[in-house]
Each structure stands twice: as structure tokens, then as C-alpha cells.
Write a structure and sequence with these properties.
It comes from Undibacterium griseum. The chain is mainly alpha-helical and 116 residues long. The protein has 4 helices and 2 strands. Helices cover 65% and strands 7% of the residues. Helix 2 packs antiparallel against helix 4 and helix 3 crosses helix 4.
């Protein structure tokens, strides 16, 4: 009686054979390229003018004035501190949602680690 191979040798290391078989049947590797595109979009949006980075800097300036009594460094009457905090939190949640969508695809590859 032959025992099935538990591991498979590949150019990228020894992998769990069952997990490799499952990944070969189910994993769409183009999802990894889609993650790259989504990451580019997220990073571009974060750094663009009035993106998350600029929003955080404005939020800091507003909070520094209100909490620490610092001089105004952000124009008043454009948006309220709570409105901006809500907008920043919304942007962060959107980024988190994107990253969480990636997790199942990455877990398939993590499961390739040999068990022994």
C-alpha cells in the first residue's frame, strides 16, 4: 500500500502536496495581479492632492488647535473637525475593506507550507 506524498518539491521550496493540489484546482493567480493594480490605486489615492495624507495633515492641524490650543494652521469654515474625522475614517475603512478582500487569496498560498 503506497502512502500518498505529503510534500512536493518545487523551484520555490517544499510545499504541502494536498494544499498545492487544491490551489492548482481553485486559485486564480491573476487575482494577485489585480491586487497590484488595487494597491497602486490605493497608494495613488492616499498621496494625491486632497487624498488621505493631506486629510490627515489637515485633521492634525485642526485637532492640534482645538486640543492643544495651537494657532490656526488650517483654514476655518471649510469643514468641521468631526466632518473631516468622519471622512478620514471612511477612507481608512475603504482601504481596510480592500486589504481584507485580498486575505482569502493569500491564505491559499500560506497553506502551501509543509506540515512537518
Amino acid at each position: 500500500m503506497n502512502k500518498p506524498k505529503e510534500t512536493a518539491e518545487t523551484p520555490y521550496g517544499r510545499l504541502d502536496a494536498a494544499a498545492l493540489n487544491a490551489a492548482q484546482e481553485s486559485l486564480d493567480t491573476s487575482k494577485l495581479l489585480q491586487m497590484v493594480d488595487e494597491l497602486d490605486a490605493v497608494l495613488g489615492g492616499v498621496r494625491e492632492e486632497d487624498g488621505l495624507r493631506d486629510m490627515l495633515l489637515r485633521l492634525h492641524g485642526m485637532a492640534h488647535t482645538v486640543i492643544n490650543g495651537a494657532a490656526l494652521s488650517v483654514p476655518a469654515n471649510e469643514e468641521t473637525l468631526p466632518e473631516l474625522a468622519f471622512d478620514v475614517a471612511s477612507e481608512v475603512l475603504e482601504i481596510i475593506s480592500t486589504l481584507k478582500r485580498w486575505q482569502p487569496h493569500l491564505e491559499v498560498l500560506e497553506r502551501l507550507a509543509p506540515r512537518n
